[in-house]
Amino acid sequence: MSYFNEIDELDGPTAQDAPEDEPLAIPIEEALDLHTFRPAEVGDLLDDYLEAAREKGFREVRIIHGKGSGQLRHRVQVILERHPLVVSFKPAEASRGGWGATVVTLKAGD
Q1: What residue ranges define each of the domains in the chain, with the CATH number in brackets?
Q2: FRET pair for 87, CA 20 to 30 Å: which of 6, 51, 77, 102?
Q3: Rounded mean pLDDT for each run of 10 residues along the chain, 110 residues in total
């Protein structure tokens, strides 16, 4: 199951109207806000998002994980450390979410 589709190709339910057990069609943008997803979804979700973002031509994306206890930030960063499409990542600047978001540099597409 892929979480992401181009916005003009949305033919499945969106986050606002989808039953809990159906896959969502989510547009690819420069940022992914994880607040609306369950922690168990983060691994597959990040993988799908990074792949789709690179295919769309993004070289830098922002993952919004929130500040909270830091557990989600840590989980995101562990995934990013091992991801084959990630060149580097760092905390976002204050104007882009500060330590509640991570900026990711992606490898150039083929």
Answers
A1: 29-106 (3.30.1370.110)
A2: 6
A3: 49 50 72 87 92 95 92 93 96 93 90
